[in-house]
Fold this protein.
Amino acid sequence: MARTLDPAALDHALALARLELPEERRDVVSAAAELVFGLADSLDAVPLGETPMSPAYDARWE
């Protein structure tokens, strides 16, 4: 299910980042944010069962 970014959420994100966005660019930015949400949601499909915890990582491994 694709997530959508409503105008209030976009306003909140812009205020949090202290950014000003012209009205004519809001649709483009909203669509890009929805694309990023979709990419982040697709990470749920990555099987992580075999991934060791980070303390097990040894940078000397080849």
In short: The mean pLDDT is 85.
